[in-house]
């Protein structure tokens, strides 16, 4: 179940803010009943009608795998007019990124107009694994690695990495390349995790997302996901 305004926005009909206006002004019907309360929960199977039009029917689903370049923002619009990841994808459909990578983070990002799949991928109960490669200031000590492996409280919630590996050390520059595997999807989680043990992240790339990687895509390149891949992603939903 999802909030009505989110389902409307995810259908590509309009933005979430406009959807809220439509709901409160009595223009939205769910399964034939007028709904004016924001936050009403609906499922993707419910029939939503706005101004006489069924908005969530027969919209072909699109799925893209992007190798996000640095200096692109994951929101759909930016008040500072920075470039958006969506602008890199050549489609007239209103797609959006599944989760967020920071402006300066590179790597694997899925974009779609399939709200149901986006939900599955982002829901913590489905434990979707992501592998990040971080270049950090300084070297992790064995104690710090132990601490990270035990789990670190970030903003009041424990973050429990599924694995951490040192890939490379640069003794001259006093930096280290670290691979970290997480099922967490909170914003800035990798940077916060390393910061909690006293290391700044200088560079960050998402290398893997579940079984997907971007090895064959140059920075800024994208491809569509195959039906087989989409089905495999749907199967990540915990039974
Ligand atoms: N963690 C971060 O700190 N930044 C990202 O972009 C993704 C995960």
Description:
There is one protein chain. The protein is α+β, with helices and mostly antiparallel strands. It folds into 3 domains: 2-54, RNA-binding S4 domain (Structural Genomics Hypothetical 15.5 Kd Protein In mrcA-pckA Intergenic Region, Chain A); 63-124 and 214-234, Alpha-Beta Plaits (2-Layer Sandwich), CATH 3.30.70; 129-209, Alpha-Beta Plaits. The protein has helices spanning 4-10, 16-24, 115-122, 142-150, 189-196, 227-234, and strands spanning 2-3, 28-30, 33-34, 41-42, 48-50, 53-54, 63-68, 96-97, 106-112, 130-137, 152-154, 157-159, 163-170, 175-182, 201-209, 212-213, 222-224. The strands form 4 sheets. Strands 7, 8, 9, 10, 13, 14, 15, 16 and 17 form a 9-stranded mixed beta sheet that branches. The protein is elongated, with a radius of gyration of 20 Å. The chain starts with a strand and ends in a 5-residue tail after the last helix. The chain binds uracil. The site of uracil has 8 residues, from α5. Uracil is lined by residues 101-102, 105, 188-191, 204.
User: Which radius of gyration do the C-alpha atoms yield?
Assistant: 20 Å
SSE succession: EHHEEEEEEEEHEHEEEEHEEEH
Going by CATH, what is the homologous superfamily of the largest domain?
Answer: Pseudouridine synthase I, catalytic domain, N-terminal subdomain
Ligands, ions, cofactors: uracil
What is the oligomeric state here? single chain
Q: How many distinct beta strands?
A: 17
How many independent structural domains? 3
Q: How much helix is in the residues?
A: 10-25%
